[in-house]
Amino acid sequence: MYVSALHAEWLKIRTLRSPFVALGALCLTTVAFSALAGQGASDGDPLFAAFFGISFGQIAAVSFAATAMAAEFRDGALRTSLAAVPDRTRWFAAKVTAIAGPVLAVGLLTGAVTLLTGDGVGWGEGVRGAVGCGIYLTLMALLAAGLTAVLRSGVATLGIVVPFLLIVSFVVGDMSGTAADWFPDRAGQAVLHSEPDVDPWAGLLVTALWSAAALGVGGWRVRRRDA
Description:
It is built from ten helices and no strands. By secondary structure, the chain is mainly alpha-helical. The radius of gyration is 18 Å and the shape is globular. The two termini are 21 Å apart.
């Protein structure tokens, strides 16, 4: 049963300390950097200033997902998991859900706290930003989970994703109107801008497509490769 598989995967993630340290860092880092960036940010884009810390918090979300998924590829853990749940598709779906759930919960909490500590943000766009924050972080975590299933290494995943996020966010970030607008982080963060270059929800859809592609390839690799 899928529910039993999901419960088992959730219990396994709960036994790992490092993923939950990453979730704590996600909330604290996002709120702290957002509070610093939001001080005196009445000009420009107050909504993005209020949620600026997500640029750093997303790294913690990615780390959580990569660590949780990579644990299956160490010391024969995947063989044990598949012995309990022989249907690899069902197991992978349960694993992905067990990863997405905590990130979404912490992401929404982080968005709410960040909104309450921000200044100069209207409630309409503020609620959009808070909800978008949780969805965006979840999608980025799923992207990392899928990539980890492909590479079978959390270190390799972080070695690719973290530099990519830092380069796109801080170097290519000002190049609006280019292909960079459709990268997963740039597109998804449109929901955190008062006047985004792309529709906020369309941007999240783009990020969702990136995540779906990574999960699709990751699931295929799980089904095709030996445990």
